[in-house]
Amino acid sequence: MDDGAAGLSIREALPGEEAWALDLAIRVAADQVPPNRDSAGPLLAANVERLFAFCRAREHRLLVAEVGGLAVAFALLLINFPNEVTGLPEGYVAYMAVRPELRRRGVARALMAAAEAEARRCGMAQLGLIVTEGNEPARRLYDGLGYLVERTVRCKSL
Question: In whole angstroms, what is the distance from residue 54 CA to residue 49 CA?
């Protein structure tokens, strides 16, 4: 971690911080859109809001990364989420966002370590997530953390 992330700490969200996390997620949502897809403009915000509502209705944790006392990133972690193939419960990182100016400084790595620890604490044997194929920095992060590709989603523009 370089000086840009000095003073980094991870904690559970405080009451009312979900609105901050949702705002950050909406602001960076376009970064998640694969290059072969239309960005969908206003639909992105509605989809992020729908995802947060989905998670809110289930057992979850909102983990917040702070640098120097300022919230800069979050991970939205589902607990006891059924794996889509096996049906067995697992932890699932439904969304993670880091303020763009603090990316590539160890913040996401620290959030993932905290998410893994929380999932283990809750008795989960697996932690899953989805990453866009074109998001090379995130893919390198997950590869480096030992995440394996189990499935791929293929699409074709028509």
Answer: 9
